[in-house]
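User: Hello, can you help with two protein structures?

Assistant: Certainly.
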Amino acid sequence: MRKPILLSIMFLLILSCKGQPVPENKKSYVGTWVGDGITLIISSDGGLSYQKVRSAGRTSVHGPIQEFAEREIRAGVWIFSAKFRIDQEPALVDGKWMMEVDGEKLTKLGP
């Protein structure tokens, strides 16, 4: 009986946490990025949603962006957090926005 209540409280705490809006100098990160089995969504209000699907399983992270460091994005809350290493910042390549995160090449959908 306690476990469902505790999980519900933790879920509500995560939902109530807000990240900081994406800084002006990082606006090129905002959007939906896709790669081989990966979807990364960064919203201008500071939200991040990441999903990686491989044959070995699925990894998901959803939560507020806590920090945009020089070569890293930290997102989530408490034990439900993750760090994403920026190997290549967003750049316009042959008319498409590209970046590399954790060794994975991603392409931005839309403008």
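That covers the first. Now for the second protein you mentioned:
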Amino acid sequence: MRTAADSPVTNRTFVALGIEHLEAAVRYGQLGKRAFFADKSPIVFVAVESELRKAYESLNKLGPTARRAHPTLPFDRMAEIRRVLTHDYAGVDREDVQKMVTQEAPSLLRQLSKLKLPKEGATAPTTP
């Protein structure tokens, strides 16, 4: 039985939020390594980390129906990133975050943009 937290509308909302925050993180990350690693003003790093945390928090809320329908999405990796960014702040490595935003986030954005999530009342999500 599908719950309200696993409804097509809710899953579409979580995917949309994940995309929105991943896109913002990637935009900030494109400001370059010098801005990203600036010690005197770590604003770019802080912005990227914040947007990634929000993106992965949203994507980790996808319900079981969406997870079963899209098994190629890296759910374990998304959960790991969210956990580190949310609960292990002292363990967050700038180089790891820079790699996430320049390599992993764009790849995940491509995957998410291809998802076909059902409208309310549909039985199951489909992939292209």
